[in-house]
Amino acid sequence: MSRFIDSAYIDSLRSKPVLEVEMVCLGNICRSPMAAAVLDNRAKLLTGRTIHVSSSGTSNYHIGDGPHRLSKETWESAGYSYEHRASQFSPQSFVDKDLILVMDLSNRALVLTAAKSESDRKKVNLLRQFDPLLSEIDPLSPEGHSLQVPDPWGDEIDSYQAVLSMIESAVEGLLNEIR
Question: Where do the domains of the chain lie, and which CATH numbers do they carry?
């Protein structure tokens, strides 16, 4: 696990039979629903534990919209099934969720501004901090940008597929940490 993630907090989550996780990006139509789709589908394969997954965006641009066509096409082509309607991030998530996993540094900063306590801040990490190949990167260092899941909005399908690959690696690392 990344030394930049609160390991004691993650350890405390291992004993919870039900874990609440929220994925967060900007508009909640590309990256965070794709990440939610991957985690939701992979979590269903776990025994002895339930993971409820949701997603949201820090902006209100797409509230109520479905996922971006290419995002949904990408996760469905990879075999994931997931229904999604965009919503906006709410500070209530600090009460309701165990983990809040953001896709990039700017959305991490926006979510952290809503945190009221240190216990709230412990819940917030970049999703890719759980990717074992990136575990030594400090999100606050100049290399922190490499922990971001880039926004594929406006790009072609290959960008969405690259994002899916990043998400899958990070989700696998997350599941290994909380088992």
Answer: 7-178 (3.40.50.2300)
Q: Does residue 92 contact residue 100 with C-beta atoms inside 8 Å?
A: no
Give, in degrees to the nearest 5, the angle at Cα 130 between 16 and 46: 45
pTM over cut 0.85: yes
Sign of CA dihedral 73, 74, 79, 84: negative
Per-residue pLDDT tens digits of the chain, which is 179 residues long: 788 999 999 999 999 999 999 999 999 999 999 999 999 999 999 988 899 999 999 999 999 999 999 999 999 999 999 999 999 999 999 999 999 999 999 999 999 999 999 999 999 999 999 999 999 999 999 999 999 999 999 999 999 999 999 999 999 999 999 98
Quote helix, strand, coil % in the chain, to nearest 5: 45, 15, 40
Residue 60 contacts by C-beta under 8 Å, 6 or more apart in sequence? 88
Distance CA 172, CA 25 (A): 19
Cβ atoms of 102 and 124 closer than 8 Å: yes
What is the spatial distance between Cα 96 and Cα 114, in angstroms, rounded to a whole number?
14
Instruction: Specify whether the CB–CB gap between 29 and 47 falls below 8 A.
Output: no
